[in-house]
Amino acid sequence: MDGLSTLITGLVVMFVIYWSVYFINSGIKISRIKKSGIKDIDKMSGANFEFYLAQLYKSRGYSVKITPGSGDYGADLLITNNKEYRAIQAKRYSKPVGVRAVQEVIAAKIYYECNAGTVISNNNYTKNAIKMANKTGIELIGRNELMSMIIEMKNTKAG
């Protein structure tokens, strides 16, 4: 019976440790979401999201041009910094972003003669979008990376 007691005690301790780590990690994720303000971005219009991203990139030292709402050839923003000239396709979506967004920024990169292209979203990406981006050298910035950029911007402003 002594061995059984030790086994049960060990299992209870493991259970408590597991759930403690789980709740701590959950708390960190919730804190990160609140600090980034990503929930506010989830409610923005597409145009407001583009404007927000323009401010975000300006805070990172880029010159930013917002393209016209229609006839933008697949780029919502054109950013420059030193020798970098980048086309950005912004997607504020409630579902994962598909391959079409990658195709759009590839076209924009060619049209505007940029040396780089990025799709940035408040969501994540489909497997096909990731596959095409990897094959064509397009950068994908998803929800987690966007939250990191926002937190970095807020910390820079605060500091």
UniProtKB/TrEMBL annotation:
<feature type="transmembrane region" description="Helical">
    <location>
        <begin position="6"/>
        <end position="25"/>
    </location>
</feature>
<dbReference type="InterPro" id="IPR007560">
    <property type="entry name" value="Restrct_endonuc_IV_Mrr"/>
</dbReference>
<feature type="domain" description="Restriction endonuclease type IV Mrr">
    <location>
        <begin position="41"/>
        <end position="150"/>
    </location>
</feature>
<dbReference type="Pfam" id="PF04471">
    <property type="entry name" value="Mrr_cat"/>
</dbReference>
<dbReference type="InterPro" id="IPR011856">
    <property type="entry name" value="tRNA_endonuc-like_dom_sf"/>
</dbReference>
<dbReference type="InterPro" id="IPR011335">
    <property type="entry name" value="Restrct_endonuc-II-like"/>
</dbReference>
<dbReference type="GO" id="GO:0003677">
    <property type="term" value="F:DNA binding"/>
</dbReference>
<keyword id="KW-0812">Transmembrane</keyword>
<keyword id="KW-1133">Transmembrane helix</keyword>
<dbReference type="GO" id="GO:0015666">
    <property type="term" value="F:restriction endodeoxyribonuclease activity"/>
</dbReference>
<dbReference type="GO" id="GO:0009307">
    <property type="term" value="P:DNA restriction-modification system"/>
</dbReference>
<protein>
    <submittedName>
        <fullName>Restriction system protein</fullName>
    </submittedName>
</protein>
<keyword id="KW-0472">Membrane</keyword>
<dbReference type="InterPro" id="IPR052906">
    <property type="entry name" value="Type_IV_Methyl-Rstrct_Enzyme"/>
</dbReference>
